[in-house]
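Weekly structure sync, notes
Attendees: PL (lead), two postdocs, one rotation student
Agenda item 3: pending single-chain targets
PL asked that the sequence for the first pending target be pasted directly into the notes so everyone works from the same version. It is reproduced below exactly as submitted, 168 residues in total.
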Amino acid sequence: MSLTLWDKRPREEAYLFNPAFCAALLHEFVKEFQKAKGQAAPYALLFCALPISLHGKTRRALPGSTVTSLYSWRERNPEVLVGFAERARSLRPIVQEALRFAIDRSALAFAEDGGVMLGNRALSVARRFEETLTDDARDCVAATRLLGRWLAKAGTASTIMAAWGIKP
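Predicted structure, written out during the meeting:
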């Protein structure tokens, strides 16, 4: 699947899936994952983070903290799996584009084990910039940060992906 050129995309899609915004979300995810686990984020988990944080219904169902187990939360919220695999598959080009954007700007880099780690330059969402975002965009940032910390505690990439009903 290829992406339509950014300036040819429908306005709403171009804004929501802006490569810079999505790259900043991936940066926040990796930063929180690294902080919580002390290692690079598995490459495959980046393809779970954005389909969760960009989807309003799923984002609003997320727990308030990482104390809640991913697996018990998922059992209590089976509706989050409805359409998730297709959403993850359809967002794959968006995640790849955002990852290329972040790597091109040295905000993210590949670790020797194939994981994704912070690069030499920050691409984080500054507090002052975050205050200018819409409530929806701010919620996406907050959810992505939570996911970085939460998935760091949830086990291996393959077990996390199995919990979401997808395969690496």
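Discussion points:
- Residues 78 and 164 are 10 Å apart (CA to CA).
- The longest helix spans residues 84-104.
Action: rotation student to compare against the earlier draft before next sync.
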